[in-house]
Amino acid sequence: MEKILVIHGPNLNLLGTREPSIYGRLSLAKINQMLKTQARLAKVNLVIKQSNHEGQLVDLIGQARKKKFQGILINPAAYTHTSVALRDAVAACGLSLVEVHLSNIYAREEFRHKSLISPVASGTILGFGAKSYTLGLAALLDIIRLK
Ligand code: CA2
Question: How many of the other CB atoms lie within 10 Å of CB of 65?
Fold first, then answer.
């Protein structure tokens, strides 16, 4: 069975509490539940982590291959736009990685228009709310299984 690491970046633990017009009404726990249901049907093993700390996210990505993960699904949240450390970790990790965003970052403030992660990701899915995650997981599984 494939093993996939799901990583939620900073402040995504607040989902469902504020800014529903941008991020939707679903809590992170609900999104995780959707992903677990999808994973069970697809017969894949998911490990889900959330952190507000850049270094911890870098460590999770850096250790993923050694821990026998075949792929990473990540919403890097605000670090998408700022973190060279996260980008370098993604570039070095040697795994298929799909970047997801709830919102369409290109339809928002200009500082969100640049992703440092997209150029080193296998692909990016954005703007579909919680569905970005389920589409992202499906895409990641396709990439891994067609390898
Ligand atoms: O659209 C996305 O998924 C983002 O990655 C979400 C980040 C944002 O910085 C990116 O530009 C786009 C923000 C995640 C924080 O979400 C909150 C949810 C509710 C209340 C406060 C923050």
Answer: 14
Tokens of 114: 């640049």
What confidence tens digit (pLDDT) does each residue in 1-40 have?
899 999 999 999 999 988 889 998 999 999 999 999 999 9
Q: Report the catalytic residues.
A: 23, 101
Distance CA 19, CA 129 (A): 12
- Of all protein residues, the one whose alpha carbon is nearest to atom 5 of ligand 1 is 77
3-state secondary structure of 113: coil
pLDDT in tens, 48-97: 999 999 999 999 999 999 999 999 999 999 999 999 999 999 999 999 99
Pocket test for ligand 1, best of 23, 30, 50 (most atoms within 8 A of CB): 23
